Structure of 6-phosphogluconolactonase:
Amino acid sequence: MTNNEVTFAHNASIYGYDNRDVLAAVAAQRLVTLIMESQNDVQNLNKPFHLLLTGGTDSIRMFQMLASNPLLPAINWNLVHIWWADERFVAYDSEDRNARKAREMFLNLLTSNKALAESHIHEMPADERNAEEIAAASDAENDAILDAAAHDYEEEIVSILGKEPVFDLAILGMGPDAHMASLFPGLPQVNNRDRIVVGVNHSPKLPPMRLTLTVPVLAHSHCTWFLTAGAEKGAALMNSLSGANNPEYPASFANGTDEISWLTTAETLQAAIE
């Protein structure tokens, strides 16, 4: 199955590819092409491009494909800002951090040759406590630390993008429970409309402490792409696309003012219709 397009909630476009590797390669090429087109549009000359990333297997595969893309040198990476839609609240050097994987697979390549300024990589705060302090902390203390970290990242976003931030492109993933970023069904964060960034304690998916952008931000990027592969995500895909803005399926809130696309695989689509 290749490039079969249908329309569902939020006028989303759905593309089914043969396997995860093809999906990742297509996403990488689309990303490079979109940034190049934006930078070569005479109306956008010297305009920053704000890219929002998340973690997950499919994003990691895309980073691997990006590292070998021959068009990378054609992009002015110093006009690109890298942000995260969510992050595991762990130590900076933890293998669990989304930002660490992005750096190892792709971003370090750009910073090492001075193509991308380190100041344009906007990581979410990390947990700077030692193991003993973390183990001894109460729920209330963890909530306060997460809230302070969320405020810090929110202030960084607002300082550059304003109080109603709009990213040029958000590349997201979705879990089998239809969570996006770290907005999980059944948790209150999915209903928060007052904040840009919130903390998540007791996440149903480890690690338990996280930071995440909220629905108002994730629903208003210019372009939003979901990378969603695997038969285990078929039901979540169908439920998220069947109706918009359903808190039982957080991914159903995602949207884009110019584009909302789901890049998925044949097995995912097959599972969705079964």
